Structures are given as C-alpha cells and as structure tokens.
C-alpha cells in the first residue's frame, strides 16, 4: 500500500488480515483528501492525536479517576489523564475539568445528572432555532425525562431574544439554563445569561461544543468565568479526538465527577483521553490562536461570498466558524442543495433556518463551516471559490455539470493536501 505511507506499517498488517476494512480506511482517507469538508462540526485532527487513538491505551480499563481506580495497572494511563486535566484547567482558566465523557452528548447527560432530577424544568435553545438534540428533543432523553422550556431567536434579526429568555426564566423557574447551539452563527452574551441565572437561582450551563475551539484560540470571549458548568466536544473547532469534556466551578467538581462515573459511564476511553491531552497542548500554541482567528475570518468571507451569489446569511452573517444560509432565493430547498453539493464533492448539511416554512427533513437552508478547510491552509481566496462552486452546484441537476464541478473541487483540494506522506 505504498500510496498510504501516512497510515504506517500497521496498515500493511491490516490490509492482509482484513482487506474489507482496510479498503474503508483507504477510501475514507481519499474522500477526505479529495472533497471539501464544510460540515461545521468537523475538522482534521493531527497525526499526533491519531497516533494516540491507535495506541495500546485503548486496551486499558481505568474506571474511576487518577489515583482512585477500580483496576490495577493504571499507573501509566493516570499520567495521561492528569496531564489532560491540568492542560484543560490551564488553557481555559477553569477550576475543575473532567476529561472522560465519551462524546458531547455523554457530557450533557452527565450535566443533567449532576444538577437535575427527572421532571425538573430546564430552559434551552429551541431545536428549530439551532439547539442540539440534547437540549430537549422529543426523541432524546432530555425531551423525554425533563420539562424543557425552549427559547429562540427574534424574527427581525435572528439573534437570541434575551428579553424572552428572562421572561421565560422568571415564569418557569428552571433548575438550569442552557446556552449553546449547533447552528447559531453569532456570539452569546454570557454576562447577560449569568444575570438571568442569578435572578432566578438557576444553574448556568453552557454547551460550548461548537465554539469551544474558538475560545481555546482566544478568538471569541470565554463562557468559563460566568458559567457553573461548560460541556463540549473535543473534535469540532478544537481539532482533537472524538470525545467530550466538562469544565466547572470547584464547588461542582464532585457532582460532575460522580455524574460521569459511576453515574453514566463505565471505563473511560484512555486512548481518547491521551488524544485530548495532545490536542489541548496544540491549542495552547500561538499557531492555534492564529488558526482560530483565520477560521472566523474565512467563515465571514464564505458567508459574504454566498450572499454575493444571491443567498442570504441568517442573522446578517457570522461571528464564528459557521454560517447558516437561507437559500430560498435559489428556489432549491436544503435537501436538494445538500444532495447536489454532495455529488459535486462539496460536503455540507441541509439545515433549518429560524421560522423555516419547510419541514426539518427538507429545510430552506444549508449550514457551512470553515474549521476543516482552514486546517488545510485555505484562505479568503479559496472561500470565494468555494462559494461560487456551491452556487453552481445548487443551481444544476445535470450530472455532467456536477461532475465537472467535482473535478474543480478535486483540483482545489489537491493544492491543500492533508495527511500526505
Ligand atoms: C455536537 C454537539 C453535541 C454532541 O456531541 P456528540 O459528540 O455528537 O455527542 C452536543 N451539543 C452541541 C451544542 C453540539 O454542537
């Protein structure tokens, strides 16, 4: 397999032992190298992180916490977890860090478990306005087990309506107020949310899954000084391994740790914990701070260029790594746009816009993000090209034209190689 020195000698072994799965690894690498990754929650983690994920740390059971494990032989993995915790606390200026959650959703289960009981009232961002499944979807544990009251954005400017949030908080007396979303392109006023939480005696929970990398890179304000608890994923802008993490004030440390283990997880994935430690070290470098600023600058250009192509950026643009684009002017819905872009090698997702007249399965919008392309080294000029490629893909259902665009995508991505030898 000389075309994939990136995977190293173990790949040769895998190819002999299990050619079916070896082929998937190769094809997925090729897919990531030759198509445009605009999914706002995706990124290319470093080879150092991939090395940790593919290591023998995966074999180790380590239920409990460093120095207090339920199994023997944890002396080596303890070192990795202590380093990860120390780096998280130092990078974010947090009083406490739990690095064990398997994912963002797992971290959120732990937050509910630490601060609420089933049936309690929680205020969270409405899903059609950008909230996450774990913020009260009817098909998620959060919507089934809790009394979720949703707040949303104002119709005029598509920004969070803090007056509505305050009114709902006073009326419903929630145990906890969640801020954070999966498709909100603007910044959140954490100071204002803190004031509302204090007024009604609610726990302030920030689900920072999407934007925590921008905080790590000091490109946007941090929720950590304000929030009781901040949960997030480590694989989005943060660019680490797939996983979750929780930061909190010292007074909540015990509740959080107990909620994660034994509350809802068994053994932590120690290979991922080591990967989180590596990513946190990378995030503390000046190069990562430049990256975080570039991610935002690129996304602004991408949103503006899509507007120049006749589409509309929700809330007037973006202040982060993602933009939500209302494509009703194109007369194509989100579902069809997503499919056409996919055929052209442009990977993005359909997304509901606030007050969307279409169903969630169809939608009137697309969501685009700049974390992965920025990691590749693309800049404003490439963002302009990408906007034009998207506009052309959305506008045609001609397979030949879509294939031609795919060729242009391939030429573009070839200039910004990832995981090359
Ligand atoms: C991505 C995301 C999650 C879930 O993370 P997973 O790792 O997919 O479980 C939770 N909350 C928000 C706001 C997210 O964007």
Automatic annotation (TrEMBL):
Q: Which InterPro entries match?
A: PyrdxlP-dep_Trfase, PyrdxlP-dep_Trfase_major, PyrdxlP-dep_Trfase_small, Ser_HO-MeTrfase, Ser_HO-MeTrfase-like, SHMT-like_dom
| Sequence ranges assigned to domain Serine hydroxymethyltransferase-like in this UniProt record | 14-390
UniProt-recorded name of the protein? Unannotated protein
GO BP term, pick one: glycine biosynthetic process from serine
Cofactor(s) needed, names only, are: pyridoxal 5'-phosphate
CDD domains the UniProt entry points to: SHMT
Family named by the database record: Belongs to the SHMT family.
Q: Spell out the molecular function terms from Gene Ontology.
A: glycine hydroxymethyltransferase activity; pyridoxal phosphate binding
Primary localisation category: cytoplasm
User: Where does it reside?
Assistant: Cytoplasm
The UniProt keyword set, sorted, is: Cytoplasm, One-carbon metabolism, Pyridoxal phosphate, Transferase
Tell me yes or no: is Transferase among this UniProt entry's keywords: yes
Quaternary structure, per UniProt, is: Homodimer.
Q: Which GO terms describe its cellular component?
A: cytosol
Query: Is Transferase one of the keywords UniProt gives this record?
Result: yes
């Amino acid at each position: 397999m000389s075309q994939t020195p990136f995977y190293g000698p173990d790949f040769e072994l895998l190819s002999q032992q299990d050619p079916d799965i070896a082929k998937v690894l190769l094809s997925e690498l090729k897919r990531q190298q030759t198509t445009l990754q605009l999914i706002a929650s995706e990124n290319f983690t470093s080879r150092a992180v991939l090395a940790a994920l593919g290591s023998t740390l995966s074999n180790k059971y380590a239920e409990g916490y460093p120095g207090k494990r339920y199994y023997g032989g944890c002396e080596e993995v303890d070192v990795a977890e202590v380093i990860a915790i120390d780096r998280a606390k130092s990078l974010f200026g947090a009083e406490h860090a739990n690095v064990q959650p398997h994912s963002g959703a797992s971290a959120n289960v732990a937050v509910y478990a630490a601060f609420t009981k089933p049936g309690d009232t929680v205020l969270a961002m409405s899903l059609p306005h950008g909230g996450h499944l774990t913020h009260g979807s009817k098909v998620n544990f959060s919507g089934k087990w809790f009394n979720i009251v949703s707040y949303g954005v104002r119709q005029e400017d598509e920004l969070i309506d803090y007056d509505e949030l305050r009114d709902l908080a006073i009326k419903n007396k929630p145990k906890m107020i969640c801020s954070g979303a999966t498709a909100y392109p603007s910044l959140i006023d954490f100071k204002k949310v803190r004031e509302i939480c204090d007024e009604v005696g609610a726990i302030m929970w920030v689900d920072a899954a999407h934007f925590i990398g921008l905080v790590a890179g000091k490109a946007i304000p941090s929720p950590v000084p304000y929030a009781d608890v901040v949960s997030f994923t480590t694989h989005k802008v943060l660019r680490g391994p797939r996983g979750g993490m929780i930061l909190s004030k010292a007074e909540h440390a015990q509740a959080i740790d107990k909620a994660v283990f034994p509350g809802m997880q068994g053994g932590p994935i120690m290979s991922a914990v080591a990967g989180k430690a590596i990513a946190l070290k990378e995030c503390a470098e000046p190069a990562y701070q430049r990256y975080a600023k570039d991610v935002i600058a690129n996304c602004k250009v991408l949103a503006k260029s899509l507007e120049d192509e006749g589409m509309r950026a929700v809330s007037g643009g973006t202040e982060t790594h993602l933009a939500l684009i209302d494509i009703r002017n194109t007369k194509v819905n989100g579902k069809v746009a997503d499919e056409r872009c996919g055929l052209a090698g442009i990977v993005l997702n359909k997304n509901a816009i606030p007050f969307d007249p279409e169903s969630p399965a169809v939608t009137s919008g697309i969501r685009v993000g700049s974390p992965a392309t920025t990691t590749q080294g693309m800049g404003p000029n490439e963002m302009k090209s990408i906007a034009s490629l998207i506009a052309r893909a959305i506008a045609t259902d001609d397979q030949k034209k879509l294939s031609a665009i795919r060729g242009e995508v391939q030429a573009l991505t070839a200039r910004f190689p990832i995981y090359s030898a």
